[in-house]
């Protein structure tokens, strides 16, 4: 396989890992106002992702580093043209991380309420803007002959991109609420399951609209295959949640996120940043990539390092596999 093609799909795999893992973190964060009846409930929800959220978030750092090394032209165009949107994502992630660490430092309810609000916003903003960003990448943006973005922030907020953002927002929310039902007990678990049933139905309608629009405008054979898998997995996950099979529901939603992201990359390939104003200005896997020598060295590094990362990630989830209960949280407070 050509190294540029290989690294296109390695970058896709890393973004899949990020959206599957940090996606349910976003969903749990956004669920605090809906599921957190009191401070103990909110602490239970935060503790479901407490041991893993920072590990999940590192996937976006690895994906960005791989993008920079393998496709420097793509990285430069993306991060300069989408600067304000990506800055908002970064600030939101910082606010969320700070809130996880600081909300328990003082006992006042006003203090905790402030940081809980930051967790919600810090989860919702990336969940929305990542969808907006990837939808714009797929449909193309105006580029000049030097591959510089010539539009504005408001050009990125077009109907198709906003629908993509709402799709990821709802998909991550449902993914996170199902994870909350998988990791909690008692009344909180039941309320999470009922909320996932409601949000899942809305997600199915919105996601179907976005995938259909994408397929009709930019679809390839592989896009339609992956989109079909994503649709079936999403509906299957919703049905599994209705039946109380949280493990199956969570797995199917993870498959939904993974195949939906891969479908967008399939619609994009072999471009990496299409130019909406002039196809001659588009960035492709060929004119955006690093040298063959660089990609060869990176491939050997990936062969040795990626399995270690996956093993460590799996071990972490195994260690923290047990459910979090109100009783354990209340006991820890004394």
Helix and strand layout, with pairings?
Layout: H1 3-30, H2 32-35, H3 39-49, H4 53-70, H5 72-81, H6 83-102, H7 109-139, H8 159-183, H9 186-218, H10 221-242, H11 246-268, E1 271-273, E2 283-284, H12 292-319, H13 326-332
Helix pairs in contact: 1-4, 1-7, 1-8, 1-11, 4-5, 6-7, 7-8, 7-11, 8-9, 8-11, 9-10, 9-11, 10-11
Give the tags.
13 helices, two-stranded antiparallel ribbon, 2 strands, 334 residues
Q: What is the molecular shape? A: globular
Helix content: over 70%
Given the structure, what is the number of helices? 13
Summing up helix and strand content along with how strands pair, one would put the structural category as: mainly alpha
Q: Terminal Cα separation, in Å?
A: 59 Å
Relative strand content: under 5%
Instruction: Give, in order, the helices and strands.
Output: HHHHHHHHHHHEEHH
Largest sheet: 2 strands, antiparallel
Q: Radius of gyration, Cα only, in angstroms?
A: 20 Å
* Low-confidence parts: none
What is the strand tally? Answer: 2
Mean of residue pLDDT values? 92
* Total tally of structural domains: 1
Strand order, largest beta sheet: 1-2
Would you kindly provide a brief summary of this structure?
GO terms for molecular function: electron transfer activity; metal ion binding; oxidoreductase activity, acting on diphenols and related substances as donors, oxygen as acceptor. This protein is mostly helical.
């Amino acid at each position: 396989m050509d190294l540029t093609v290989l690294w296109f799909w390695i970058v896709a795999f890393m973004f899949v890992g990020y959206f599957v893992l940090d996606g349910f973190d976003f969903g749990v964060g956004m669920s605090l106002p809906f599921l957190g009846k009191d401070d103990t409930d909110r602490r239970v929800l935060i503790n479901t992702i407490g041991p893993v959220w920072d590990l999940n978030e590192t996937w976006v750092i690895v994906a960005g580093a791989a993008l920079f090394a393998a496709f420097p032209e793509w990285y430069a165009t993306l991060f300069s043209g989408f600067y304000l949107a990506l800055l908002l994502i970064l600030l939101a992630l910082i606010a969320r991380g700070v809130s996880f660490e600081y909300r328990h430092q003082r006992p006042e309810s006003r203090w905790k309420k402030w940081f809980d609000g930051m967790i919600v916003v810090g989860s919702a903003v990336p969940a929305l803007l990542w969808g907006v960003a990837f939808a714009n990448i797929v449909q193309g943006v105006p580029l000049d002959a030097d591959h510089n973005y010539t539009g504005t922030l408001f050009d990125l907020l077009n109907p198709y991109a906003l629908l993509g953002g709402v799709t990821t927002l709802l998909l991550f929310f449902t993914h996170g609420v199902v994870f909350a039902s998988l990791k909690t007990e008692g009344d909180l678990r039941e309320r999470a399951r009922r909320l996932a049933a409601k949000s899942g139905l809305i997600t199915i309608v919105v996601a179907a609209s976005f995938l259909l629009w994408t397929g009709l405008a930019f679809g390839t054979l592989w896009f339609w295959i992956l989109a079909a898998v994503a649709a079936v997995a999403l509906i299957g996950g919703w049905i599994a949640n209705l039946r109380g099979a949280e493990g199956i529901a969570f797995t199917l939603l993870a498959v939904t996120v993974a195949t939906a992201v891969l479908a967008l990359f399939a619609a994009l390939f072999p471009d990496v940043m299409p130019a909406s104003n002039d196809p001659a200005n588009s960035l492709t896997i060929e004119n955006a990539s690093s040298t063959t020598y660089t990609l060869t060295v990176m491939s050997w590094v990936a062969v040795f390092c990626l399995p270690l990362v996956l093993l460590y990630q799996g071990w972490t989830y195994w260690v923290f596999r047990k459910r979090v209960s109100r009783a354990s949280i209340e006991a820890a407070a004394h």
